[in-house]
Amino acid sequence: MTKADNTLQKLLEKRRSAGLLRSLKKPTDLIDFCSNDYLGLARSPALRQQIQQAVFQYPALLNGSTGSRLLAGNSALAEELESEIAHFHGAEAALVFNSGYDANVGLLASLPQRGDTLLTDELIHASMIDGARLSLANRFKFRHNDLSDLENRLKSATGAVYVAIESVYSMDGDLAPLPELVHLCERYEAALIVDEAHATGVFGTNGEGLVQALGLEKRVFARVHTFGKALGVHGATVVGSAVLREFLINFARPFVYSTALPPHSLLAIRSVYRFLPQCQALIRQLHALRAYFQEQIGVHLPQTEWTSDQSPILGLVVPGNDACRATATQLQQAGFDIRPILSPTVPAGRERLRICLHAFNSESDIDRLVQTLQEIMYVHE
Ligand code: PMP
């Protein structure tokens, strides 16, 4: 072992002894209550066929993009795709990023300048946190979904003001109070940035996201839509004004300094956007399944605490890392792919089983899950 390996090993040991060592999970054939493939598009043969056709039919297709979009990596395909995405999302412009992580880092690191203010919900995703850390602006967190705490921060904010939130929170599955947030930001002339990672494909008639489902698209400064969750492929986009797009092309470092997505990825993204209008029934099915699950919880699992009932992400609170991990293991042994979310990822005492529903889960999957949970949780009664 080299000296560097030794140092790393010590850091890993520290994590292991705290019971928090992460490892890559083995692929399983358990019933999927874990993935972000909310509509099942990642496994859809119909979408796969459309992607294959698009790739075969595309003339002079390069295997790779060959560089940053600012060098050789731009293409008519990328620009046309962005126009199509902007149109779909009711925005003036769109810019594709290699991932949601890149989009959030690019946005938050580049938009607010020194002397400006960046206000972030305390539960925003790590990618937004990392972007905010790189920003030279004054940064403050506000309490989760707390409008009065945000308003207090807005009152004392300096320079241009940006507010960053998620429309569907990834760990709790609850929704931001978007109409109220939009109104508050307008009153203080703050630019609202909404990460729609877990709302894309899930809310809106065609999966346009929660902002559009509520008709607020003209009143939100920037939205981030990711393609790796309900859309079943990979990559992300920022949608907003043409000025925002031009700014990001110039200043968002993950965009400027990284090789662009390859043409086959762009074609996959284009295929899924064209496929979404055929997914209305799947989206309705997903929400119907959520309603069914909640009904069953009400009947068979009273006295259990859930982090939200508003989205396909449902967190069953099982306080304590050991208890939460043990319950997850029992569920996995019973055939369900359900993972524990432990502290410090979530606050101590709020450890939970994160259950993600999908359009392809069946009512009988849910019945079995509820029955198993009942057996595990009420075993001492
Ligand atoms: N935002 C949120 C809320 C997320 O949950 C994630 C993915 N976990 C991302 C952004 C990052 O998106 P991507 O996986 O495309 O990098």
From TrEMBL:
InterPro entries: Aminotrans_II_pyridoxalP_BS, Aminotransferase_I/II_large, AON_synthase_class-II, PyrdxlP-dep_Trfase, PyrdxlP-dep_Trfase_major, PyrdxlP-dep_Trfase_small. GO terms for molecular function: transaminase activity. Transmembrane segments: none annotated. Pathway: Lipid metabolism. Keywords: Aminotransferase, Pyridoxal phosphate, Transferase. SUPFAM superfamilies: PLP-dependent transferases (SSF53383). The keyword Transferase applies. Its cofactor is pyridoxal 5'-phosphate. This is Aminotransferase class I/II-fold pyridoxal phosphate-dependent enzyme.
